[in-house]
Amino acid sequence: MDVSAGWWIATIALVLGITTVDLVLNRGQTHITIQHATRWVLFYVAVALAFGAAILIGFGPSYGGQFVAGWLTEYSLSADNLFVFLVLMTRFSVPEYLQLRVLTIGILMALVLRAGLIAVGAAAIHQFSWVFFIFAAFLLYTAWNLMRSKHEDDTDVEDEEPPAIVGFIGRVVPSTPVWHGGKPFIKQNHRWIATPMLITMLAIGVTDVLFALDSIPAIFGLTQEPFLVITANAFALMGLRQLFFVVRDLLDKLRHLDTGLSVILAFIGVKLIMEAFHENSLPFLNGGEPIHAVPAVPTWASLGFIVAVLITVTITSTLANRRDARAAALAGEVKIKDDEPTRAA
């Protein structure tokens, strides 16, 4: 994929322009309604799909499909990030009128840090094809842990412990537990110290990158083009702020999402192993020659699989919620009937 400087400049200008418009239009927002956030989420989804269409026209359907599959995977895996963001917001008691600003700066930091990880990953893959095996093993391990934790974790958000990195940041950076509006620093006893505003932004940025350690290998399993990897991450993160306000009250309703994500990660892990065989250079495997007998998974199949899994978990979660609601209603009716003789007596 030969990406000209013009494409890079236009893409950067698009991302910066949309982000600036978003910040200007949402400046001064003290309460984000779910309707307002939903409109922005739909806008960012439309922008990402339009960019995918531009990739399709400019570089062909294969690269267009790789971008959409990568963006959709990154966006889906962001659900875990949103849960961590919610834990951090609760942990630091972030005032509602500051939540959008905290998310904005934290996610911008995360985008810069992710770009560094992507550059390292792309360079490693270009030099050493066996890195695919490492990425695949990590994704399969993550998928297993995600599936296992789904069946073991019944902790409420309020009781959830924040990531250990949060405590580390609090110990390293001199800070005060008292909020001072949107100020990241205040002067106290003749020295500058950080406020919860700065600590929360740093925590969001760093923890997002830690959680990206599974999503970045995942997208490399769908495309090895740095331009597509970076832009898919950028468009996924751009809509993440508004998505937070949409799903913060809905995460529990998508009860099968973790199962779906584990299936997607396992699928991409297997796909990476197959890709590693195709790009094989290890001397103890087929004499260091590529193994073309292993079938390749086309982009359309990857995209179709990801979409099918997400649709399936949405449907099964909805049906499970309705089943539980009916069971609860039936239990209530039974209790009322059991109480009637007592009242009559």
Automatic annotation (TrEMBL):
Main location, first listed in the record: membrane
Protein's name in the database: TerC/Alx family metal homeostasis membrane protein
GO-annotated cellular components: membrane
Species name: Kineosporia babensis
Pfam families per the UniProt record, alphabetical: TerC
Signal peptide, first to last residue: none
Membrane topology: Multi-pass membrane protein
InterPro entries found in the cross-reference section: Integral_membrane_TerC, Integral_membrane_TerC_rswitch
Keyword tags: Membrane, Transmembrane, Transmembrane helix
TM stretches of this protein: 6-25, 37-59, 71-90, 102-124, 130-147, 197-220, 226-247, 259-277, 297-320
Superkingdom of origin: Bacteria
Family: Belongs to the TerC family.
NCBIfam families: R_switched_Alx
Entry's localization field: Membrane
Coiled-coil intervals: none
Keyword Transmembrane helix (UniProt): yes
